[in-house]
Design brief:
Distance between the termini: 39 Å
Strand content: 5-15%
Number of strands: 14
Low-confidence stretches: none
Largest sheet: 8 strands, parallel, barrel
Order of helices and strands: EEEEHEHHEHHEHEEHEEHEHHEHEHHHHH
Shape: globular
Bound molecules: D-xylose, nickel (II) ion
Helix content: 40-55%
CATH architecture of the largest domain: Alpha-Beta Barrel
CATH class of the largest domain: Alpha Beta
Structural class: alpha/beta
Number of domains: 2
Mean pLDDT: 97
Oligomer: single chain
Strand order of the largest sheet: 5-6-7-8-10-12-13-14
Amino acid sequence: MTEFFTEVPEPIRYAGPDSDDPLKFRWYDADRMVGDRTMAEHLRIAVCYWHSFSWPGNDVFGDGGFDRPWLDPALEPMAAARTKMAAAFEFFEKLGAPFFCFHDHDIAPEGTTFAEESANLEAMVEEAAAHMERTGVRLLWGTARLFWHPRYMAGAATNPNPEVFARAAAQVRNCLEATHRLGGANYVLWGGREGYDTLLNTDVGRELDQLGRFLTLVVEHKHAIGFDGTILIEPKPQEPVKHQYDHDSQTVHAFLQRYGLDGEVKVNIEVNHATLSGHDFAHEVAVAAAAGIFGSVDANRGDDRLGWDTDQFPNSVDQMALGVYEILRAGGFTTGGFNFDTKLRRQSIDRTDLFHGHIGGIDTLARSLLVAQAMLADGALADLRSARYGGWDGDLGRAIMAGERSLADLHRLVAGNEVDPAPRSGRQEALENVVNRYIERVR
Ligand code: XLS
Ligand code: NI
Ligand code: NI
């Protein structure tokens, strides 16, 4: 096999926080125990196929300049797909990433007919199975690209034309089976165009029912074929369309309940999408965990001042540690993990830039994990939180929550006893200082 990443001859190793070697991990030490699991088991790192290997670096204003020889349009598509896959697995292995993620069309050419699309996918899935067997790299999730082809311009499941719905269903059937064949831990649906650009031509009620029906079909098929991975929805408020139905975790939870899919489907939270929906990443994790639908994470961040999906590598421990803390509070990942749905900046054209981005991102997650675990183990924030809610464990709190007090009962209580509790400090600044102390100290 021809080597592609020639500047990185050896797998990336851990060298410790004092290392200045840009091709070593400073914080990610895969086998280091953090609480009851190793770092690798906690983080379950995955590399995404699409931005890393299928994207030439173009933006809406110009062509891409990335060094990706397999994207040359003059190549025979299946041969190009095989070369791309060899380079992708070389990267996964050298980075030491235990998982990868893909869309159907990232690994297999679309072809010109459905028959060709299906045959290409089948062939490339066998090729992937062989690479996985050889390298030990596993599949975190698969997904179908239901937003690229012009047939999906008005949505896939939410399209006004049922034949488009059928075509999307067929594509998902193929991709779900491919994911199952490759032992995927999850299957993701990102509703890229499930929403609308203008209400003037849109029937929102119908479209939501269609989306509920579509997801039900996916869940039924998952059970029919015995796929035991988790089905995940990836919430995003907008982009590419103006309004997307899976706006954020709380919206998705209401949607799942409405269509009877609670307990069947969880969420894949993207840091970037949280920002776009006006939330912090930690908020999205906490809300999903409270609803029992926390599944997996796309670790790529946005930019607070840009209203689009910049897909940047995470590099702020200050921000990421708070999200990882919520993940640990929720018990950590089960089938999920941290996928790097990340894009290099357009000027990062060298092969090795792909390593720099991932190494920095993985180190950010590793250090955030250490901070989060230390805060959790010491009960640094938990003590104040439980004291704050202490009243709810007392007689009054318990009786209210057990449904044993009516509005009239509470009125009687307050009127008869002049109940007027004094406010207490929420101590936000003191808590923020606690977090900073952990960030400074962790080693
Ligand atoms: C786009 C999404 C996409 C999904 C997979 O914003 O993040 O990349 O993760 O379809
Ligand atoms: Ni995104
Ligand atoms: Ni994503």
